[in-house]
Structures are given as C-alpha cells and as structure tokens.
Amino acid sequence: LTNHKRRLAEKPYFEGFLAHFGKTFVKEYIMTHLVGGFVLLAAMSLLSGQTGEDNLTAGWALLDFLLIAALGTVGVAAEKALPVDLFPEFRRREVRRIVYVVVAALFVDMLARFWGFLFGGFAQGIGRALGEAVPDTQGAASSLYMANPLVLFLNLLIGAGLFEELLFRVGIMTLVWALTRRWWIGLLISALFFGLYHISPLSGISAANLAAPITVVLTSFGMGLATGVIYRYRGFAMAVLTHTLGDWLLVLLLASMKA
Amino acid sequence: MTITINSDARWRRLKRWLTWLRARSEVMAPALGVPLFFMMIGSNEGHLTTGQIGLVYGLAVGYAALVIWSPMTLPAKPPQPFARVAWRRAALVVVPVVSRLQKVL
Description:
Number of strands of chain B: 0
Distance between the termini of chain B: 81 Å
Shape of chain A: globular
Strand content of chain B: under 5%
Helix content of chain B: over 70%
Low-confidence stretches of chain B: none
Distance between the termini of chain A: 62 Å
Order of helices and strands of chain B: HHHH
Shape of chain B: flat
Largest sheet of chain A: none
Number of strands of chain A: 0
Mean pLDDT of chain B: 83
Low-confidence stretches of chain A: 11-18, 48-54
Largest interface: A-B, 64 and 50 residues
Number of helices of chain B: 4
Number of helices of chain A: 11
Oligomer: heterodimer
Mean pLDDT of chain A: 77
C-alpha cells in the first residue's frame, strides 16, 4: 500500500472519502473536461463550423442528457462489482491493447454489420407479415449524412457510439449484470431497450423509424445483441468503436446509393 | 498382465488444446471480415487502389497474428461491493463528459 492508501484505510469512512475526494477531484475534473470536452469541441468547430444534428428539441435533449448522465454513472459504479475489467484501455493505457482495439474494430464491425443484415432481413419478414412497409433506411441515413465524412464520423462517435453505449451497455447491461450476476440477462434487457429507443423521440431519427416500428425495433434489438456481446468479451472501447464504424459505413453507403 | 490406458492425460491434453483453440477463435473476425469488406465495396461498385487493398490485407494478417500469438481477453479484477465512493467517483467521470459532449451535439 502507498502512504495515501494506508492513511485512507486507517481513517473512518467519511474522513477517508474526503481525503480521497480531495486528491482525485482535480485530476479527474481536468482530465474529463479537457480531454473529453474542449478538445472534441474545438475539433468539431474547426472541422465543420456546424453543431451536428438538430433533430432533438431542447426538452428531449435535456432528458437525453439526464438519462445518459444518470445511467452512465450507475453503470460505471456497478462495473466495480464485476470480476472483469470492462474499461481496460482507460485504466491501463497499454499501447498494444489500444492498437488491437482500433484494428480489431475494423473487422469486427464487418461481422456485426453482416449479423445486422441477416437479423434485419428476419425483422423485415416479421414486419411485412404484420402489415408494415419496408422502412426508409436510406431516408434515415441521408438525414444523418454530412458532407464531410470525418465530421460524420465524429458525430457518430459521440452520439451513436459513446452516448448509446454509455446508456445501454454501460448503464443498463452492466447494472443488470451486476445485480443478477448473469450477463446474458443484462444483454437481453439492454438490447430490448436499445430497440425501443430507436422509435422513441430520444433518437434523432425516430420520425423515419416510426414508419415501420416493429421492423426497426427488431433490427435494433439484433444490433444491440451484437454490440452487447462485443462489450461483454472485449470491453467498452471496442463496443464504442465497432458501433461507430458500423453506423458510419452504413450511413455513407446508403447516402451514396440515394445520391 | 494388465494394460492401462492413460485416458486422463489424453483428456487433459484435448481439453488444453480446445481451450487454446477457443481463446483464438477471434481469428474468424479477420478471416470473415476481409471477404465481407470486399463484398460490401464490390456491391456498391467501389474501387480500391492496390495500396488500399494491401493495407486491408496487412491489417488483417497483423490482427490474425496478434490473436494467435496472444489473444486479448478482458483482464480479471477483484470485484468490489457497491459503495458510496464508487457512485460519486463514477458521477465525477461521467457527468462532465456527457454535459460537454451534449453541447457539441
């Protein structure tokens, strides 16, 4: 034990918490605000001069923020009760692992897309049997499309990758996993919520998705399962990158087909 | 005279081999990912230069080699009980990041 940790162990709970809080607060505050906030904000502004999708009204955006902040916090805290480290890239910062995640995500997202394609076909079959039209995925893709692919990637990295993974995989799946001690229960519940989220006003493309709700919910449920399995076995960073790359390629392809 | 078959040792060897194989099953990702990638490019009538094709194959081979040499699994850690400190520390990490990024979007 270091001196600091030994002092913490010797002190009563509340004093120990204050000492710990004082030491880590500045470091964590600076790290999250500087790295997570200003750098991305500056990069986005420099690259585009635009502020991303304006599909959410202020009320829904506020609810979105509250949900992500609350559930993300719950999930990060609940992860401590699990026997595996789901954030190894952030805790250990091993170059080998970071390179691995970036390269692996390129290929794993192909498999996830293929799974999405198969599951989407199955979902469309069910949707049609229930009298639904084919969803306008190209319309949804072109509503997200931006002229600059890099800006689109950064938008999807934050909105689709980081926020959705924080909400569903970290927030819901990790919490249910920690409470039930069974990861697959968390996987199913988080995938179900992920499916429903895509037709809720919290999603920026819910207007297009509501034309064929059953198909969209089932397709998103399938993608939620795939991303959840990636999160279970390879951690948060891999899930975020795979989700982002998959959405990015899909939007680029569908938008180019429409053009 | 009795003949003894060391089936335990054989079974252990087989189990070890299966564990080795299972840990490296991720090699299917580059093996299937490369044809899927080219199929996707082809179906959209996209064209890649020789350098880009080489890069894709190079990354796939590097990835496969890494997986076979040393598979990446999630590291184990001692589970801790839910604690008030953990909740507060988690909030300190998540809330500022989300609030900043929310402003970007």
